[in-house]
Structures are given as structure tokens and as C-alpha cells.
Amino acid sequence: MSSPHETPSGPAAPPPVRDREDIDPRGKKRDRSWPPAPEPLPFPVIDNHCHLDFADGDQQLSVHDHIARAADSGVDAQITIGSDLEAVRWTAALLASEDCPDSLRGGVAVHPNEAALHARGYDHEGRALPGLDEAISEIFALLRGPGMIVVGESGLDWFRTSRQDEQARAAQIDSFRAHIALAKELELPLQIHDRDAHRDVLEVLEADGAPERTIFHCFSGDAEFARECVDRGWFLSFAGTVTFKNASDLRGALAEVGLDQVMVETDAPFLTPAPYRGRPNSSYLIPHTMATIAEVTGTDLEQACRTIRATTQDVYRWPEVVAA
Ligand SMILES: [Zn+2]
Ligand SMILES: [Zn+2]
Fold first, then answer.
1. How far is the CA of 217 from the centre of ligand 1 (A)?
2. β partners of residue 264
3. H or E segment and range at residue 194
4. Average model confidence (pLDDT) for the chain?
């Protein structure tokens, strides 16, 4: 398929494109200081979902700063995800740039909340947006560029976009189905964003047939849903949410399925693990999440890291990153 969209390329990794909000969803001013570096992991893992296009924190970190800090914590590779058109283009440009770090890969998709906006034709500021089909064809073209190893994040979000908004709901489902087809055509794994939409996500995947490698990013279901996903051969990626005090259902889900089909991520700059919830997040904070994962599954920390790393390399067919 030919496309008018060229993969952008540039000599240097671009700086982050946007600032994260200063106010948290409860209307409180956030503490924007970077949490201290944790004890490094005994064996390195891969952060399979973060958003390096976001700037956050009282001190501006470049892509290379994030990667250097992560390496010091035992996180030696990352997958950065672009989830609106601006971030998608930024991610493609970063991966095509000459000084893109070797340990970085990426993925792009139209995020379900963005799908609703493309269908409507304008963003939150009232600026015109291309239609959903046009946005998806740009995604398709950019996924063929250097360093792209996953389609994501796509899925359904009934938290930010109301299930009652018929047009938005239909746009999300159309977009999700298009991304499922795209992952299959490109033979890439699919990262799913599922917020308050477990049953509907399952239904769409069952109806269309899930890609061979399907990952629930920031898994948020309970033990029963986790079992249903794992039994279908899908993978669950746990973020800092698993460390939250009120997340006993999520820890129950992890305890139910064990480590075999599990991965770890930050979703940075969001979802900072306890005890630093609300502060900026970056891959170097994964040791907090790994500690909880090891504890909940009753696994020695080093063994948990080894298992998760092997799964991640296998799922993304990324053998060349060899842990030291
Ligand atoms: Zn997400
Ligand atoms: Zn995300």
C-alpha cells in the first residue's frame, strides 16, 4: 500500500513535545519533583510501555536522560508509545533519528479517546483533526518505519469517553477493529488500552480474532478476567497501579495467573508506583513495581526479572537486547 506520508527523519532525537498538567485529576497541585533512584534490580527488565513524548518534572529530562537513569536502575530497554497524531509523528521522528538510542523501540496507534475526537473532527481546543480513516492510514504508514515493533495503544475506554455517547462509542469500536486488522497484516503484536471496558474489549477480540501476540497494557481487570485473558494466550502488562494501596483486586489478578504471561511497564509519565503516586514517572522507577510483582507471585526478585525479561523479548521478537 502506498501512502503520502513519509517517515520523518532528523539528525537528533527531538525534545519532548508537551508538558504534563500540573494539576491532578482531583484538582490538587501535583508535586513535580522526581522521586529518588531506587535500589537497582538484580537482573534487567524492559519497560514495554512508556510515553517519552511527555515532559514532566521540576527538572527537564531528555530522552537520553531517561534512558541513562533507567539503565542505572536495571531497566535497559524501553518501548515508547505515541498515542495522538502529534505524539505519533514525534515517536516516528525519534526512532528515525541518528542518535536514537539502540535500546529504544516504539509503537503507534490512535488511542481510543483520540479515535472519538477524530470521528468528531476536532480536538479539545477546537482545532480541526483529520478523519479517523486518514489518521489510521498515517499510523499504518509510520508503523513500517524504523524501530516500530508494536501496534498500540488501541482498545476501548469507557472512562474518559462515555459509553452513552453513541458516536464516540462507535468510533472507538471501529478504530479498535481497524488496529486489530493492522496488527495482523503487519504481523506485529497489539497493545490494548482497556479502561472500564473489559467485557466489550473481550467481545471485539473474540469477534474479529485477536492478533497472535496480544498484550493488555496497564492490565486493570480482576482475577477472573486475568484468567480469561491468559487462557486465550494473551499477555498482561502490569504498571505502577499494582503497587497502589487500593489495588487488592489487581494483586489478586496477578496472584491468580502467576508470572508466565506477565510483563512490566511504567506508562510514564503517568501511574507512578507507590510510595510516589502523583509525582513524575520514568522507567527508572520500575524496581518498585517489580518488587510488588515478585512479592505477590511469591517469586524471588531476580527470578521474576528473568522470567519477565524473557517473556518481553519473546513477545516483541527482540532478541538482540541481551541483558548484561
Ligand atoms: Zn493506556
Ligand atoms: Zn499509555
1. 6
2. 238
3. strand 190-195
4. 92
